[in-house]
Amino acid sequence: MDLSTAGVKNELIARITDRDPTGEWMLRVSGEREGRRIKNIESMSESNVNNYEHLRREIELYRRERELMERELSVARREIELLKRSQNATSDGRHFDGDSGMFEAWEKRVKSLRDAYGLTDDLARIMIGSRLKGKAQE
């Protein structure tokens, strides 16, 4: 409309009314405002969709992280249990000093401990090595 914007409100309205007596300018301004509102709403909904996708991905990452931590905790618990078994088996075994009369009884005791605690061959060897003394250790 290219009208001056200086003056009081009454003068501004009078200038606009003189220039456009039909009031068409109000519809045009209203339509422009509505268009801007629609664009704002659309951009907000796009922003909300992007925000939703971001939050969904973040939740998925947290879920995977939790599963990984649960698996690691399970492995750590198994390792602790295995160490406890190995320690118990070692403390339950009697020392073997190389006396041939004691070997058979000692061997049976080691085998029963290995089976009772579910020790692997490597852990059983460690247990045997820790319980030898005297001639048997040499």
TrEMBL record:
Which key words are in the record?
A: Coiled coil
Q: Which residues form a coiled coil?
A: 52-86
- Please identify the protein, giving its name as recorded: SAP domain-containing protein
Origin organism is Lasius niger
**Lineage, broadest ranks:** Eukaryota, Metazoa, Ecdysozoa, Arthropoda, Hexapoda
